[in-house]
Give the backbone structure.
Amino acid sequence: MAKQATEEISKVDPVNTDGRGLNGVARLATALLRRREASIALVAILLLFYFQSVNDAFLSQGNIRGLAQSGYATAIIACGLVMLLICGEIDLSVGSVMGFTPIIVYLADQEFVFPVAVIVALIVTSLVGLLNGVITVYLRVPSFVTTLGTLFLLTGLNVSLTDGFPKPAPEESTLTRILGGGPYSGIIWALIVVLLMHLLLTRMRWGLHTFAVGGNLVGASEAGVRVNRVKIGNFMLCSVLGGLAGIMEAIRINSVDPLAGGPNVMFLAVSAAVIGGTALAGGSGTIIGAFFGTAVLTILRNGFTLQGVSANTFNIILGISILVAMTLNVYVGRLRRTGRT
Amino acid sequence: MTPPELGDTDILKAENIVKRFGALTALDGVTLHLRKGEVLGLIGDNGAGKSTLIKIITGYHRPDAGTLSIEGQAVQLKSVSQARSLGIETVFQDLALVNELSVFHNMFLNSELTIKPLPFLNNREMKKRTRKYLDDMGVKIQSIDVEVAQLSGGQRQAIAVARSVYSDAKILLLDEPLAAMGAKEGAMILDLVQRLKEKREVSIILIAHNYAQVLEVCDRVNLLQHGKISYDEKASDTSIEELTELVVAEYRKARETA
């Protein structure tokens, strides 16, 4: 499919950018194929139709709510990971951050009023990102290793800070209702985050510089882009998004669980980003693609569960789809490079 | 139309620049000056220190000793951004273009236009100006919306040069813009330099290996050997043979002492 896409693109006369010579349908098809997000969105829609056709309950109100609630955290975390992946880094610790931040909220809540506790917790969370970034950028430890370290560090810390027992969720207040009161508050937040991050990535200097850092690190720094700041900033952004998702999840399940989040959510989010067209090697990726990637994974898992297919089968399918997506990614990248000379 | 006269004043002056990397002395007291509107060719063998010198002038490296002055003012460059703000722009050998970004985003990399007071990119204006800049310089690109990955080496080089010129560069450093380029592509870049020279608005240091090309577009030639400027002559008063002889003599001397 990806090969088809590139062929389609190369057929378009590059001089004729307004495309008036092409008929409408072909133009639409080209535009769809040209946008990486479109193909994954199409897959998500097809899956929706498929599962609805085999099971009426799939698009029932109850199940839509279930879809929204099981997918939003991954969607938010995937946004942060897309930024990091584009600038050539990764954060394996973000799942553990998701468990860590609500614990800090719980601890800070003993000292301050709840809104202040949330702010304090998010600041502490941003320091985790700062630590990841500084170790990666200045000590030149690959981020895969740095964040593997913080993953275990936080996993241990989460258990020791709570003595291994779940703590009560924050008492209901206006802010808890905003963060996780309603059945759809999670997905609404996720959509807001996706929109803001999409704007940041595609419409603002920060986003362009993120692409530049991942695409040509030396070149970007020679052009005066502050590459270290961009990387560290994205580490911090990723952690804070993980923390936000963690707080919302704690409010939703009404408990501060030391084992919340973890590597599973992180790997799902990385998968969502990759399936959505983000290159692990850096330089390219989209927030919208990662969102639809999350949607595909969430729909698959939910749909299979409704069908009575076991979690193991889901993992097999997840594994295959990642392998296919990655292979296509690499293949398309190679096509591009050879097409250049 | 007669081209404007070359200015009398030095826009850039480097005096006794020394740069060491550990035990290696890359630059051993380089003194070089560049007049306003001049095109200076900088030649020298691999490892003579050309790229180090360029990186010092653009604020990428800091010299261990020596002074730099711009329009008579002594400056201490701390960063590339600072050098840029003083009007020093470079087109590096390893091309500061990002393959994944479009032509117009590359043109404005790190000096992007935004829709003030909002922080959003003003793509429309950037595209408009990019089109105008490239037209002015006679650079032909199929579309400015394509990723630069899809362009040829010469086109990418031309975009890099255009970017530097239009970011209000007063001093333009071209680090081997002709390396790894076909005859047609090289001619395109030389045309570009010629066009800039005729306007005499920007002063250029051109690093190149091909003496014929250097003599074709440059006003003056400097030869860098062993971290020092060993030869400084007007392009009209020297020849390919003389330049070649200077470099070869160097080898002969080295072989005799060895």
Remarks:
- The domain at 37-340 of chain A is CATH 1.10.3470 (ABC transporter involved in vitamin B12 uptake, BtuC).
